[in-house]
Every structure is written in structure tokens, then in C-alpha cells.
Amino acid sequence: MAEPKSKISPTQRLTESGIMLALSVVLNEFPVYQLPMGGGVTLFSQLPIVLISYRHGVKWGLFTGLAMGLIEMLFGLKNFSYVHGIVAYLVVALADYLIAFGALGLGGIFRGKVKNQAIALAAGGAFVSVLRFVCHFISGVTVWADYADGAKAVWIYSLTYNGSYMLAELILTVIGAAALGAIFDFTSPRLRTLKKAG
Fold first, then answer.
1. Can you say whether the dihedral through the CA atoms of 11, 16, 17, 19 is positive or negative?
2. 145-189, pLDDT tens digit by residue?
């Protein structure tokens, strides 16, 4: 996949990415609703990574998403104390953090494929939310199966538990992406509004 050509300097790209990464981490650390076994609903915490991916390309987006995954893993180190064995540690590290948040970097995948920027961003937001859900679902049916609270089918428990907050995350990300995509031109070096007033 060809990365978008840009007149944005490397310094500007790095600065924008750092700001958006910090914003994502802060929004993710202060959820509006927290589930008892981890996960929760945040106010647009996925959106900054999706925007970086759209603006600077998927490769840069993946790098930024992976950085978010590493930071979130450091904040969530206590979760590793609930599991045992190298395989479980790897699944938690990958499925709950590195791949789950790294996948957000694919948010710009529809740039150039869908003409309408708002639709492309919304589709990218939905796509990465589904990917993140799949990661948490896999972790739920493997590593966190013992915490299924007596559920007959662990996969149903993981589906409903992880789906309960990831559906809200998907909806918020899509709404935020579509709204910002309709207002700003994310292909412009200076983030112009799409339509001039008057």
C-alpha cells in the first residue's frame, strides 16, 4: 500500500504524533465507565491514533499505535500477576496491548480508497475497533477463561464482556472520526477546515 505523499516535515509529523499519542493515553487512562475485570468505555481514546494514521500513513500509524500499546502495557503491568506461564504472558502482552492498540494504526487504511474523508475516517475507525475487539476476545477465551464466572461457554462470556465496552468504543470512534473528517482537511499540512465560512 502506497503511503500518502505529504509536504509535512518530519519534525511536524513527530510533534503531531507525540501530542496525539499523549492524548490517546490520557483519555484511555480515565474511562467514563470501567469494567471490573479490565476494559472500559473512554471518550474518543482511539480517535487520535486513527487520525495520525490517516494523516501520516498506515506505517506511521502502526508505529504510533504500537507505542500506545507499550505505554498501556506499562500502566497495566499488574494484570500480568493474574496469569501464569510464558504463553499466558505472551497472549496478554500481544492480544491485550501490543496488537490490540497497534491495530489502531490501521485507521488510515481507507485514505485514497474512499473519496469522502469523513466516510474514510469513520470506516477506518470501525475497522480498527473490530480488530481490537477480536484481540481482546481471543485473550478472553484463552488467558482469562478462568475468570468467566461460571459461564457455560467461555466464548459467550468473552463476547459479551469485551463486546459491551468495545461496541461503545466503536460507536464513539466512528462518530468522532466522521465529525472531524467533515470539518478538517487532514491531508493539508496546516489542518485547514474543509469549507470556508461564508
1. positive
2. 877 766 668 899 899 999 999 999 999 999 999 999 999 999 988
DSSP the chain: -PPPP----HHHHHHHHHHHHHHHHHHHHS-SEE-TTS-EE-SSSSHHHHHHHHHH-HHHHHHHHHHHHHHHHHHTGGGGGG--SHHHHHHIIIIIIIHHHHGGGGTTTTBTTBSSHHHHHHHHHHHHHHHHHHHHHHHHHHTTGGGSTT-S-HHHHHHHHHHHHHHHHHHHHHHHHHHHHHHB-TTSTT--BSS---
Amino acid symbol at 166: M
Do residues 122 and 174 lie in contact, with contact meaning Cβ atoms separated by under 8 Å?
yes
10-183: which CATH topology?
Answer: Arp2/3 complex 21 kDa subunit ARPC3 (1.10.1760)
Q: Three cell numbers at 184?
A: 478538517
CB 75 within 8 A of CB 21: no
Give the contacts of 134 (CB within 8 A, at least 6 positions apart).
none
> For the chain, which residues make up each domain, given as ranges?
10-183
* Phi and psi, residue 179, nearest 5°: -65, -50
